[in-house]
Write a structure and sequence with these properties.
alpha/beta
Length: about 280
């Protein structure tokens, strides 16, 4: 079994990234996968074929990303699909989170993806083809939950620059898709994966309730099947007209509909004031 497309997937040692990489390899794709820890990545993927190129990458470092991209090109000759999957969840009230905790989340979720985009685009532009999947979240479309402010802000940023990127690279034959998953049964909500503030403020019981619900009630109970999510992501890269916005999961669909209805209702309710500001 053989497939000619070459995938470059970041954050591949766990979660959706790991499931995607395993499925790609099983289906004959060639895959360069990155993680901060090469040993963790190799143990998780457990594949020793010539299809698989494991790479240790510090996503926050441009030189590290550049080295990984060059290694992929020298090994496989090209990159067809880039998946910006590296990132982590952060749940804490805006007043509780330190400047450094907030910046760290942006450094990985936003600037790490931008590093990958900058370093892979020269190759995609030259070959006049490619598909970039930026893994966001439905939290990048609707962010009303207590404690989700900074994490959702990082994902709103991903959605924002992805929309611009879509327009910028379309003339080069490069597609961009924002993938916005709801809850999927990975280790994303597990202790050690989901980061919480070091300095918590007792008054924010609504934030604690959100954190407890995610870590204790929802972990390992998520309705979304990561195998099916990976299958959908692979499918859209084979579509001639791929979507810019791809919500994943029935819950993501419902959250998105609620946000759209809220905005639509407020637009109409306040239309007179909104449109009253012209000369």
């Amino acid at each position: 079994m053989s497939n000619q497309k070459v995938w470059f997937v970041t954050g591949a040692s766990k979660g959706l990234g790991l499931t995607l990489v395993k499925k790609l390899l099983n289906e004959g794709y060639r895959v360069a996968a990155t993680s901060r820890n090469l040993s963790d990545l190799n143990n998780a993927v457990d594949n020793h074929s010539e299809q698989f190129l494991p790479l240790a990458v510090n996503i926050k470092n441009e030189d590290s990303v550049q080295e990984a991209v060059e290694k992929t090109i020298s090994t496989f000759g090209k990159i067809d699909v880039v998946v910006n999957n590296a990132g982590y969840g952060l749940l804490g009230g805006l007043e509780e989170l330190t400047d450094q905790e907030a910046r760290d989340n942006f450094e990985v979720n936003v600037f790490g993806s931008l590093n990958v985009i900058r370093k892979t685009l020269p190759y995609l532009r030259e070959q006049q083809s490619g598909h970039i999947l930026n893994i966001s979240s439905v939290g990048g479309f609707t962010g009303g939950a207590p404690g989700g402010g900074i994490y959702c802000a990082t994902k709103f940023a991903v959605n924002g620059f992805s929309e611009a990127l879509h327009s910028e690279v379309k003339p080069f034959g490069i597609k961009v898709t924002i993938v916005m998953p709801g809850y999927f049964r990975t280790n994303f909500l597990s202790e050690g994966s989901l980061v919480v503030p070091k300095n918590q403020i007792a008054a924010y019981q609504n934030v604690r309730d959100t954190v407890n619900r995610h870590q204790n009630d929802m972990d390992k109970q998520q309705a979304g099947d990561p195998e099916k999510a990976a299958a959908v992501m692979i499918r859209i890269t084979n579509e001639s007209e791929a979507p810019l916005n791809l919500f994943l999961g029935a819950d993501a669909y419902e959250f998105a509909q609620q946000k759209i209805a809220l905005v639509q209702n407020e637009l109409e309710a306040w239309k007179e004031l909104t449109t009253s500001t012209g000369f």
